[in-house]
Amino acid sequence: MNKDQLKEEKEMEIDLLSLFFYLIQKWKILLLGAIIGGILAEGMTLLKTPMYQSTSTLYMLSKTTSITSMADLQLGSELSSDFTIIASSKPVVDAAVESLKEDKNITLTRGQIQNMLSVANKEDTRMLSITVTSYDQELSYEEADAVTTAAVAQMAAITQTDPPTIVEHPEVASDAMDNGMRKNLAVGILAGLVLVAAIYVILYMMNDRIQTEEDIQTYLDATVLGVIPVDKELAYYSKQEEKNEKGRHGRKKKA
Q1: What is the per-residue DSSP string for 23-52?
Q2: 3-state class of 183 per DSSP?
Q3: pLDDT tens across 130-167, in order?
Q4: Domain 52-168 = CATH 3.30.200.20
Q5: What pTM did the predictor assign?
């Protein structure tokens, strides 16, 4: 490794250390940025409309199926993926739309229900969960109930067997879903801190002025023979004297 490379590495190390201490000096502003970021994230989270979920669970085997039959159990596992698609299919959703309109006087479109509906096969089981998420807890319950009823009927019609067993019927949600308050708060604090730090890093990198004797040695490769300290109090009075002198000259000109 030649001398130029060693010099560049040394300069980089000095720059990083200088940048670190520069940011440490700005800790109050960095803290303020983190606080503001956290407050904004918290406010945006609180402004979100609370959402409610209602879920039903289906067992892929019917009540009349013998659980002692390995073939039936294997068939239930294989049908889980098929039933997942059937439960969210257009015929099922359309049947739920008609049921809600006729029985509950609730008018919804196919697209609205599909946007609120999610169907999932619980891993390593023959269980199927049908979940409806809505801003209205009563509406989510009614939709989940209608979709579950329609899905069970459609599954039985397609497979030409007994309908799957409903393990859990949907219920009216008592509490809203977790809105991710803590997570959003942490993200907001981190984002505010990083944003302010990035601004200071850019300002630091753009500042190419010589400020310390170390800068002279590093960037100019010159030896510092001596340092003349600045008397801040003397500098202050000198500036005041200059202002007073300018004021006297101004009054003389007016006279």
Answers
A1: HHHTHHHHHHHHHHHHHHHHHHHHHSPP-E
A2: helix
A3: 999 999 999 999 999 999 999 999 999 998 888 888 99
A4: no
A5: 0.62
